[in-house]
Each structure stands twice: as C-alpha cells, then as structure tokens.
C-alpha cells in the first residue's frame, strides 16, 4: 500500500467575494478511484534469495530522542514530566503530546507501557546527527537514502518501495534491526522539517509506502465509532499545534482555535468520507463560502486545505507544507483563526481572518 494522501487548497478572499481554486485538472471521481487503488497492498512471490538489507552501519545516533524508543511510560514521564495531553491513535498506541505551543512539538506513541513511535518538529530537538532546518544533502551525508527498504524475519519478507518523489520528500532509513526513521523535508527550502521514529511493527501497520511482502502483514485495530471520535479529536489538535509551530518557524503569527470553524471543517471531512468523493465542493455544488454562510460565520478572508488517506494528522500537515497552494494557506500572514476537522482519514483545515 502506498501511503500517499490526496490534497487540494481553496482560498476565499475579500469576505468571500471570489474563489481561487488551486486544483488543476482535478476530477473528484477519478481522484477517489486513485486513492482506492493506492490503498491496495501488493502481495507478491518474492525470490527465495535473501532480500537486500539497507541497514546503515556505523551511525552515531547521539540524540536523546532515539533512545526513547522502548522506554517505559514511567521513564518517559519521569524525564519529561506529564504530557500536555494524551491522544488516541488508530494504530493501537496513545500519543503523549509535549509542546511549547510555539517552537517545539513532540508526541510519543505509547503502547502496552512502552514508547513505540515518535513524531517531532521544532527547535532544540535532540536528534543528532541531524537537526531540524538541516539541508537534504547534509542529512543524506549521515544516512543512506534508498528507494527500497527491506525487512526479513525467517520466511517472512517485506519490501517498501519509494517513488522518486517520496525519496525526495520523506525518505525512510533503518536505524537498527527493529527501528526506522522517516525524515520529512520541506522541498521549498530543501530543509528538514520533522522526523518520525518508529518500530518495525508499527511501520508495517501504517504502511506509508508501497509494500511488497511474503507472509502476513500486522493488522490495524478495528475501532468502534466512539474510539474513532477520540482519535479524530486528537488528530485535530495535533494538526492545529503543528501548524502553529511551522508558522512560528516561518515568522508568521500564531492562529487561535475556533470551534464554529472546526465544526464546518469536520462536517466537510465527514461528508467526503460518507459520500466517497474528494473536493472542496459538496455534491450539491456548495463550497466553503456557502458552508461558512450557513453557520453565520463572518470573515475578511478564508481558506481551506483538504487531504485524504494520509497516515495521520502530522503526515497530512507535512503534505500540505510541500504543495504550493496549501503552503500558501498554511503560512498566510493575514489569517488569525483556524478550525480543523478530521473524519477517519479525511482532513480539513479552515483558515480565517476575522474582522
């Protein structure tokens, strides 16, 4: 399965006087079909010879962040204190979130009392030999970026296949036999934007790249509607926090959370999921302007980012950051408020400049 999301940006300018839609030759039905095709995991008969192991030897991982993998929740809390909050994920672990709300953001995935994954961005992260803001070439000098990353356990084999674009935007490296790292790059600045460290089992559950395998894949948990509600609320907060950290990095003002705008965003994400389409415009032809008007929301300017089928909220934000139209909305000077709505794996950001 390839974990590439789909995203579009819509801007409303001048109190909703006109639209600027950056969607190119977008066809909603065709996009949904492509998303569904990408979600199909490929099972192949792999050759009996051992698959290449792209483990990078002699990596001097000085950063403290890497050693958090495998740490107990008690050790994590003893060293970092109580988290700002705990958010459920759709992969069986709970996110323990630590953030300054401006220049640093970390979330630790805790499952069965142990840290199994980490997402981090912002300043003063202990991730040597790399650092946020480092160039792609500088990071590549420490890690081997390859288009294939393989995992072998007895007769079971897995191979992640990265496209040229994925190798440029979010390469995957093997840190040791059980631990991997995704490096998310801002391709507009050619600098490292965030990192995700993950155990092998969680990586195979998430499957963020196209995967070929022999054997069986770990299954994601089946969630109830109530559990999904908790997961969605957590991702909404994560997207909000990470957006502000990124805006701070680019010397933009922080946005305030707005509940009515978030309700509009959530309704659109749910509508896209329920009715199997992907567009700024609902099936009745209404867009953001109409949705805001129906809720009596007044504004000077507004914009909308949407995405689908990303691994989680942090991955969706990094996707928006690397698309020109979405980046424009993400970093726009005039916006003052943000509402985020997530339903399953559909994500909507509604930005607004209030009078």
TrEMBL record:
The lineage of its organism: Bacteria, Bacillati, Bacillota, Bacilli, Bacillales. It comes from the Bacteria. It comes from Sediminibacillus dalangtanensis. Residues 69-209 form the CAP-associated domain. Residues 241-351 form the SCP domain. This is Cysteine-rich secretory protein family protein. Pfam families: CAP (PF00188), CAP_assoc_N (PF14504).
């Amino acid at each position: 399965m390839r974990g590439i999301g789909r995203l579009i940006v819509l801007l409303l300018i001048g109190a909703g006087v006109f639209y600027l839609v950056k969607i190119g030759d977008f066809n909603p039905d065709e996009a949904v079909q492509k998303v569904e095709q990408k979600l199909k995991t490929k099972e192949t008969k792999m050759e009996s010879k051992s698959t290449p192991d792209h483990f990078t030897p002699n990596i001097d991982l000085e950063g403290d962040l890497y050693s958090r993998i495998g740490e107990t929740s008690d050790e994590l809390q003893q060293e970092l204190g109580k988290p700002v909050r705990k958010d459920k994920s759709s992969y069986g672990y709970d996110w323990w979130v630590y953030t300054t709300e401006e220049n640093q953001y970390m979330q630790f995935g805790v499952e069965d009392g142990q840290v199994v994954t980490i997402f981090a961005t912002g300043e003063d992260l202990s991730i040597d030999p790399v650092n946020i803001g480092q160039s792609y070439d500088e990071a590549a000098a420490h890690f081997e970026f390859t288009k294939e990353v393989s995992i072998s356990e007895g007769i079971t084999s897995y191979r992640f296949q990265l496209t040229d674009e994925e190798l440029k935007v979010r390469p995957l490296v093997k840190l040791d036999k059980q631990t991997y790292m995704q490096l998310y790059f801002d391709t507009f600045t050619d600098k490292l934007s965030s990192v995700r460290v993950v155990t092998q089992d969680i990586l195979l559950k998430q499957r963020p790249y196209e995967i070929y395998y022999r054997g069986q894949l770990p299954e994601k948990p089946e969630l109830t509607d109530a559990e999904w509600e908790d997961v969605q609320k957590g991702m909404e907060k994560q997207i909000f926090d990470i957006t502000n950290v990124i805006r701070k990095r680019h010397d933009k003002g922080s946005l305030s959370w707005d509940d009515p705008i978030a309700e509009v965003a959530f309704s659109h994400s749910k509508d896209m999921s329920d009715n199997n389409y992907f567009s700024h415009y609902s099936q009745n032809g209404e867009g953001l302007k109409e949705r805001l008007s129906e809720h009596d929301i007044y504004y000077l300017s507004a914009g909308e980012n949407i995405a689908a089928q990303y691994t989680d909220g942090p991955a969706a934000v990094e996707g928006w950051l690397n698309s020109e139209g979405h980046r424009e909305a993400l970093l726009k000077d005039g916006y003052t408020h943000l509402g985020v709505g997530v339903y399953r794996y559909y994500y909507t950001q509604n930005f607004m400049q209030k009078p």
